[in-house]
Write a structure and sequence with these properties.
Helices cover 76% and strands 0% of the residues. It has 186 residues and is mainly alpha-helical. It starts with a helix and ends with a helix.
Length: 186
């Protein structure tokens, strides 16, 4: 009888603890600081920005329109995970800007003004970057390095302005040397 009483108390205690402290089940998506639809958009942004834009490949830039439209629809319908709800206002502001940039890209792709399309591609890429910065802000030092790299890769290099690139090397190296101190893990 004593064993039965101890066993009964043990079972009651386990049941009481289990019901008093229920297991919290949280979907891992809710605690991940990312928006998959935005990440997927990089599949188009990367070749647009790093291949077609520097080469001034207007046909390729125009060819991205259907894929951009699909990704924009997905991003417009995306929901921020719970961990990013505090960034919803910034997300919505940048989303409007991204939509404006996408609409301008579509309009420019319908015309014959190559410079307008290149500018629209640049603005679309910029707004894509701003969307990413809402959910993952960039460190100032990395941003400074990226700004110099941007000028070299997207402005000077395509136009073969090698002397101007050489003139920026000291600045680029200075900014690059600042990164290990920022990124060092203690």
């Amino acid at each position: 009888m004593k064993k039965f009483a101890v066993l009964s108390c043990f079972i009651f205690l386990v049941f009481a603890v289990h019901t008093a402290f229920p297991q919290v089940k949280i979907d891992s998506v809710e605690i991940t600081s990312s928006v998959p639809e935005l990440t997927d958009f990089h599949e188009i942004i990367f070749p647009m920005w790093h291949t077609a834009y520097p080469a001034k490949d207007i046909n390729a830039l125009k060819g991205f329109v259907p894929q951009i439209k699909l990704h924009m629809e997905a991003i417009n319908n995306a929901a921020l995970p719970g961990i990013l709800k505090d960034k919803e206002t910034g997300w919505n502001i940048q989303l409007k800007e991204l939509n404006v940039a996408a609409d301008n890209y579509y309009k420019a792709s319908e015309g014959n003004d190559d410079e307008a399309l290149l500018l629209a591609a640049e603005k679309l890429h910029y707004q894509y970057e701003m969307m990413n910065r809402v959910i993952r802000p960039v460190l100032k030092e990395i941003d400074d390095y990226h700004q110099t790299l941007y000028i070299i890769y997207h402005k000077l290099y395509p136009d073969k302005k090698y002397d101007e690139i050489a003139g920026l090397m000291d600045n680029l190296i200075k900014r690059l040397r600042q990164l290990p101190n920022i990124l060092r893990i203690s």
